[in-house]
Structure formats: structure tokens, C-alpha cells
Amino acid sequence: MKINRLHMAVLAALLGSAALVGCKKKEEPAPPPVAAEPAPAETPAPMAATASVGSVDLGNAVGADMRVTAPMTTFAPKDTIYAAVATATSDPMASVPGKLGVKWTHVDSNQTVNEETKDITFAGDGVTDFQISKPSGWPTGKYKVEVSLDGNVVQTREFEVR
């Protein structure tokens, strides 16, 4: 076989290509994509403290702590009638402004006897008292008191005057 210039040129090109491929610098793998730092978990907004009515006691006397001294459901016509409303806040350290109200009704005649609302700053546990009296005496019959917190009736107590 005769080697001519064309064969030599092809051979030189092949050897040159092989040399280039063999000498070629190794490519480093691409660095992994930088992960964005995860966003911090959202902390839920703190719930605003709320006030609630725990109990309502009726009686004809209250102590210095505004609690009814002897709970009862039957009263004499000339008794002063007290409603002691126990309240609490969801966070004992928070102050919660609100309105505490009562509506006294003579059930037999469907007449409102008295309505009263007090602006209160609730803080932890507390007691608020309301009272009604009638020097000439209450008509006998069935009555009820509705206790509301911020305009919503939350408890009702029924009682009787004999």
C-alpha cells in the first residue's frame, strides 16, 4: 500500500484529534444549585385575649368581693336582688375591654324591669355585680335576668318573687 499525502493528512488529523481529546481538561461538574434558604415558618399571629362569663349567681346580699353570699332563686317582694357575674379572660395577663350587661324581665307580664350595661376592662378572673330593688315591692311571679357580653346574651337565670 502506498502512503500518499492524503493518507498522511488524514492520519495527522486523526492523531491530532485523539491528542486533543486525551489532553482535554476534565470539566468539573457544575456546582449544585444553591438552594434558597427556606423561609422561616410563619409564626401564627397571637390570638387576641377574650373575655367570657363563667357563672351567674342570684341572691339578696353580696360580700365585699361582690359575690352573692347565699345563692337563691326565690325572693321576697321587698328584697334587693343581686346578680353576681363571674368573668375570666383567656390570657390572665391581658386586659380586655368590653361591655357587660343585664336585662331583668318580669316573665308573667313580659315587661322589662331594668336594663344596665357597664364598661369593663376584664383582667383575669373577676366578679361584677348588678342589682335591682323596688321599695314598694316586686309583683309576685316569675322573672329572668339575661346577661350579655358585648351585646350577645351569654347566660340566663330564672327566679321567682313570692
Automatic annotation (TrEMBL):
Signal sequence annotation: 1-21
Ranges annotated as biased composition (Low complexity): 36-48
Residues covered by region (Disordered): 25-48
Keywords: Signal
Domain of life: Bacteria
PROSITE patterns named among the record's database cross-references: PROKAR_LIPOPROTEIN (PS51257)
Name of the protein in its database record: Lipoprotein
Organism of derivation: Thermomonas brevis
